[in-house]
Amino acid sequence: MAKTVRTLDGESRRDHDINSRIHKPKLAEKVALDIEREILRRGWPVGQIIGSEKELLAKHQVSRGILREAVRLLEHHLVATMRPGPGGGLVVTAPDAAAVTGAVAMYLEYQRAAPTVVFEARIALELVAVQMTTERIDETKINKLRAQLAREAATDPSEYPSHSHDWHILVAEMSENPALTLFITALSRLTMDTAAIARELRIPAPREEAEEVHKAHSKITESIVGGDIGLARHRMRRHLEAIERYTSGH
Predict the structure, then answer these.
(1) 3-class SS of residue 50
(2) CATH architecture of the domain formed by 13-92
(3) What's the pLDDT score for residue 1?
(4) What is the pLDDT of residues 18-50, one digit of tens each?
(5) Fewest CB atoms within 10 A around its CB: which of 28, 118, 205, 224?
(6) Selection from 111, 128, 215 nearest residue 174 by Cα
(7) Distance of alpha carbon 34 from its chain centroid, rounded?
(8) Coil vs helix vs strand at 83
(9) What are the extents of the domains in the chain?
(10) Cis before residue 161, ω within 30 degrees of 0?
């Protein structure tokens, strides 16, 4: 039979070990959050060393096990990574937007978000994005939009709907609002997956689909280049509603 050993405060060794395991992740999370806040205060300096393991242990006054658990959390969230060896330490990393948008799309899939729900959010966000892009259009952005349309026209129709996704992300990026870009990217990715499934469930006509989408993108681009916010929003809404009908099978 296992022997129960009492600690100085009367707690059994078994209870003490359980409490330590429960306490450890919470403390590690706090240390990780403190380090993340420090990185934010420094302006998220990618490539900069926040401190060596020895320096971080002294600063946060925790055990090596707690610090290493905190580092694992930071690495999992793509905030920083520990570089071993002489001159090493905790290095600030650039977050991977693809990982974030992928996680958002996966969460919505897990929630079984219906296409109508996704498009409610997508239409709201993309109408704001196309308006901001139209307001901020310049020669450089015009050239990028036209280059994207040229790539789209030259793309094999079998690659639809991935090339449609690229045009929508470009318009979002040109709004110069990273929050819009992040969520539009996630929702567009989810729509792209749904559209791919929809194509498998019916007789494929990829060339016709690709041509229709390219035509819509061209018209919206004309409105953006012409600075016509109302027309750009109207055409974007009609385009997204057409995609929603396609993905829902209507």
Answers:
(1) strand
(2) Orthogonal Bundle (1.10)
(3) 45
(4) 444 444 558 999 999 999 999 999 999 999 999
(5) 205
(6) 128
(7) 23
(8) strand
(9) 13-92, 97-248
(10) yes
- Tokens representing 220? 């919206």
d(CA 187, CA 121): 8
Cis peptide before 206 (omega within 30 of 0): no
Provide the token pair at 93: 């990393």
Residue type, position 49, single letter: I
The domain defined by 97-248 folds into Four Helix Bundle (Hemerythrin (Met), subunit A) (1.20.120)
Look up residue 200 and give its two tokens.
């498998």
pTM for the structure as a whole: 0.70
| Distance of alpha carbon 62 from alpha carbon 173, whole angstroms | 42
Which residue is associated with the tokens 């209507």? Answer: 250
Query: For 144-194, how does the pLDDT look when each residue is reduced to its tens digit (9 = 90+)?
Result: 999 999 999 888 876 666 667 899 999 999 999 999 999 999 898 888 766
